[in-house]
Amino acid sequence: MPLSETLAHLAGLYAASEDPWNHRSSPYEAAKYEATLAAIGPGPFENALEIGCGNGELARRLAPRCRRLTAIECIPAAANAARHSLAEFVQAKVLQGSAPASLPEMQPDLVLLSEVLYFMTPQEIALLGQWLNKHAAGLIVAVNWTGPTDEPLKGAEAVGLLEQALVTKRTDCFSGFRIDVLAPVGRACD
């Protein structure tokens, strides 16, 4: 599916529901969030970035570990839902835009990519890897669905493309998803 069709499809899903994948009620999502937060660690993180935050459910759970959290989302309705989810956290902000083109000038000590990479093109993933090597100052955590997607890339393929630009510290496999902990080249021992 071409990127414009993917974005239109996602926009349609969020137009129909603020929570199209049941992030707030699904046992699968709850288990994935728990595993993701365990992989990230307790923090505190000075300047965290979540790329593709959807409706903000994971960002809401991440925010207490962050002194500053920037979440970015390309679908306007999802970005608005994320702003609502994060309203109580003064240290959190939600930007509308796409990665890597709209990423803010920052040096995050945590970057979270939860089920977003396979919506990107290989070229966007390569550019994201370059951005991460230039800007990231700490952990990069990529969470990917391991089942079939309706996208050109599968989760493992998408994270494999990102791994070409970064250093893999570890990969943990779970039922239905995997978590890859990565680091920028030159910061792998931090």
From TrEMBL:
One of its GO terms (biological process) is methylation. GO terms for molecular function: methyltransferase activity. The keyword Calcium does not apply. Keywords: Methyltransferase, Transferase. It holds the Pfam family NodS. Signal peptide: none annotated. This is SAM-dependent methyltransferase.
